[in-house]
Request: fold
Amino acid sequence: MAKSTIDLGANAAENTVAMNPIVGLAREDLIGAVGVMLRETAGRPVKTLKHMKKFSGEVVKIVRNQSDLAPDPKDRRFQDSAFKLNPFYRAGMQYYLAVREGVAGWMDDLEFDDAERARASFVTGMILDSLAPTNALIGNPSAIKKAFETGGGSLIRGLKNAYEDMTKNDGIVSQVDKRPFKIGENIATSPGAVVFRTEMMELIQYAPTTEKVSATPLLIIPPQINKAYVNDLAPEKSIIRFLTSQGIQPFMVSWRNPTAEHRDWGLEDYVDALIESIGVICEISKSKTVTVSGACSGGITAATLLSKLAATNDKRIDAVTLMVCVLDPQPDDSETGALVSRHGIEMARRRSAKAGVLDGASLSRTFAWLRPNDLVWNYVINNYLHGEDPPAFDVLFWNNDATNLTAKLHSDYLTVYETQPFRNPGQVEMAGHTVDLSKVTQDVFIVAGVTDHITPWKACYRTSQLVGSQNVEFILSQAGHIQSLLNPPGNPKAKYFRSETRPPADVNAWLNGQAKEHAGSWWPYWGEWLQKHSGALKAAPKLLGSKKHPASDPAPGTYVFD
Reply:
């Protein structure tokens, strides 16, 4: 595989679907931002003329070959040598950069409030990204070279790729070559079996790989937004295989991909399904307790579960792991947070209520356009202009295996954003109880990623202050969103940060004082932590399931194919 293709896949893996798009960006808000720009332009012509004059002066320099404009060295769009050596391409690039610079200066000069500025910047950024000369054949020297080298074959393949996307991929440019991957054959292959099934979920028990196992099993709660087998991708990066190698007994929920008929499944129903699953796990394992792990939106579900069990004095959970999970989202956490409005939230709620689900393909499309350079135009260039196949990358295969959200669960997630139940203990009714994480006293292990822009690490850090636990571990991995999860030992560049004491309220005090750097993956440390919270060792079970809950379909189950 070519290096550029590897980079393309790795970059996209850090831009996988998470919570951001489900909050909703109302097209009316974005159109309104355009209206504000037009109003400001018309009302303040002197400012507009000033920036037009500056832009015109830069264009004259470009024509005279006197412009100093150059792209950011990290901007991969202009790395071809033709943009330095060929005056035609250099001028085209500089003209584009002059437009971007001029628009940025003009935007800075306009009088907006914070929300208007964020939306206007988003709209103009999306438009300018689409106008990059590299997005068209004539403005992309590497694509033209490729066409000559292949006798036009690259263009034929590009047209074929575009046709395939239009007819078989909902009009979305493909991010991954799905052909090499077969679920249950070369991906999601850890031995196990479904031991419990409802209309909503399957519970999978995985086979032990050690002679002895820890007595207390682990329940893995995956996101409802994507499928559960992110925990069991290729064997070398499988969380399941790592856990079984450590003598942990993992059970994992596989959520059903809902349709419109399941519109009324809400957060309370998902939490109740987990409570029922805990009973099944305890019966099979003969353990009175379990540990729990939840990631991303699965972490929100896990936190709600913990709060509900605390409210009913149910002590069947011993300890909990929360990975790349934000429980109290705030507008300034991410660049898209300021785009959200009450109107946008309500419009998102109405649209999914009308359809019965928030469609997975629509969710993927929305997210792609939040980062168009990484998730749209990169692939337009690679797939259509260069005629290359997208990368065959297991993380992207999983990420593109889109699932729906029920209308009720979507609405409940929006309510989390609106009411901040975890930040306001004892004030918000949700999932059949009053949410209060201060009553959650189990030991907590929190994981975040330094370069994670989907669930920013400082937002994840706040969870350490929401729970009533005395023993809280906060692990900051030198990675992004997915690489924070799929972080197996063996990467020489891997490292993480942790402190020996409970994280303080001041995140900067933790980062600059308490946190110490550790080389390698955080998985081995997590394995030790889990072992300490998983009871004594006992002989590994020879059979999966029990008489009451017998093993049925082999892992990864049947719902994974919906």
Q: What stands out?
A: Confidence is low (pLDDT under 50) at residues 1-6, 9-20. The chain has 22 helices and 16 strands. Residues 3-168 form one domain.
